[in-house]
Amino acid sequence: MGANRLRSECVNAIIRSDITAIPAYKAGRTVEGCLKLASNEVALPPPAAVLAAINEAAVKGNRYPDPAVTGLTAKIAERHGVDRGRVAVGCGSVLLCQQLVQIVCGRPTDEVIYPWRSFEGLPIVVQVSNARPVPISLTEDHRHDLKAMAGAITPNTRLIFLCTPNNPTSTALRRGELLDFLAQVPPNVLVVLDEAYREFVTDPDVPDGLSLLDGRPNLVVMRTFSKAYRLAGLRVGYVVGDPSVIEAVRKVYPAFSVSSLAQAAASAALDCLPELLATCDDVAVERIRVQNELRAAGYTLPDSQANFVWIPLGERTTAFADHCEREKIIIRPFPGDGARVTITSPEENDLFLAAARKFTR
Ligand SMILES: Cc1ncc(COP(=O)(O)O)c(C=O)c1O
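Above: inputs. Below: predicted complex with pyridoxal-5'-phosphate.
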């Protein structure tokens, strides 16, 4: 027993001391027998053609994947009308976030500004890279506080994450405010526009980040195959930007981390775009219905541009999540703050609405 403790103390001494301070990633829960509305996934399985491509790739599972992700990179580049040298594919956008921090941060004094609350992975990837997190509180109306974010820039700032639509608060950045903000960022600071939910945006005043890249070499746009493309379990994301930034992102790519199944699936998904985007349109229609019904039931919530809604319930958040679980629905609570609920099919949304109506606030 004593020897064991000694051994584990020795092991602890060789681990970076700041690692213990890194928060564990809290994923949406899956509970057998319950409807899961906790991870912003599309409820439908990948299209049949994508499943066939995965099967075909599985046959060659004894071989390493293409380390340069050549075919998929070319297809993504073609889809967006950009040169291949401006696209880097990664093992989900969460790992790309980490690669982006790695290419600009090297000293503990290096700072990364991000909105908070936002994507749960951000504080983790910043701390893993031994950089200094600079979280900036959202405004009262659940939006990025761009004025405060611009005011937080110092000579140590290396990177700024923006998340639009923001996970979990569902609000998106509008053209004017975003352009004003970008104009205030020094050219030696990298700005990462995380557009994981871009395909669900319907507000014409919310710009497509890719249209802002020209003339802004310090801006990159990040997308994922996890949401609209229904491939969360396969792990593929990509970043589009200046070729020199992209080259650096590729240098810190963990070798072979985008599997051959993932590459085949994402490639095939790009061939099914109309079908996949039609589902996103359906979700956007449902989103308005769910928002309206929740408001009619007495809830207050911001307008969503994503495939989820944000219900700022404050101290009642945990009680709401517990109530939903008793109704066999798993949502994503952020205790003391609010609840995030994925929008899916009309049937599933109805089940959630029925549960929400029964909650006594
Ligand atoms: C805003 C945002 N960025 C990035 C990610 C990570 O996505 P991926 O599955 O591509 O790693 C998520 C996942 O929920 C997200 O909400």
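The pocket of pyridoxal-5'-phosphate is lined by residues 40, 92-94, 119, 163, 167, 194, 196, 224, 226, 232, 237 (CB under 6 Å).
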